[in-house]
Amino acid sequence: QGERMKMIAFLICAVACVSLALCEEPKVIDATELDQLKEHAGQDIVVEGLVTDIGSTQTKSITFINLGLPKKQGFVAVIFKKNLEAFPEGFDAYKDQKLRIAGKLSLYQNDKPQIEVSSPEQIKIVKPE
After folding, report:
1. Among 35, 33, 29, which Cα is nearest to 69's?
2. Rounded to whole angstroms, what are the CA distances from 112 to 7, 15, 88?
3. Cα separation of 103 and 117, whole Å?
4. DSSP β-bridge partners for residue 105
5. Are 78 and 86 in contact, with CB atoms under 8 Å apart?
């Protein structure tokens, strides 16, 4: 009887621990920590940093929000044309702001950390404390 109760208690604890891990907030990584970002390729994370540039390709097929480092040197949030309608206000509100971008990190050209953004819910402005 005692062993059975211990086993049940153990299983309850194990399930609770797994549930907590699944609900855990994704790790927040500074946009300038490129090596650390690259280690999290393929994972859901949150990248935080100051906006250094917002722009788009000549054809307007891709919009970029660069965080932490100048253009083409660091992390970028990528918004493809198919997702632009999710941003009717555009991107001006993000200029000169500190942002948190959430999503699955990928490496563009195997080297440049990026997150594809398809909805405004993935972008949070970090207010100064």
Report:
1. 33
2. 47, 37, 28
3. 7
4. 115
5. no
Place of tokens 């398809």: 118
Q: How far is it, in rounded angstroms, from Cα 67 to Cα 111?
A: 16
Q: What's the CA gap between 111 and 129, in Å, rounded? A: 33
DSSP label at residue 9: H
Predicted confidence (pLDDT) per residue in 39-88, tens digit: 999 999 999 999 999 999 999 899 999 999 988 899 999 999 999 999 99
Q: How many CB atoms lie within 10 A of CB 22?
A: 7
What region does 35 belong to: left with phi over 0, alpha with psi -120 to 50, or beta?
alpha
The residue count of the chain comes to: 129
* Helical (H) or strand (E) element with 98: strand 98-108
Q: What are the residues whose beta carbons fall under 8 Å from the beta carbon of 76, sequence distance 6 or more?
A: 64, 65, 66, 67, 108, 112, 113, 114
d(CA 36, CA 45): 11
Q: Is the pTM of this model over 0.85?
A: no
Q: What is the full DSSP assignment across 25-81?
A: PPPEEETT-HHHHHHTTTSEEEEEEEEEEEEE-TTSSEEEEEESSSTTTS-EEEEEG
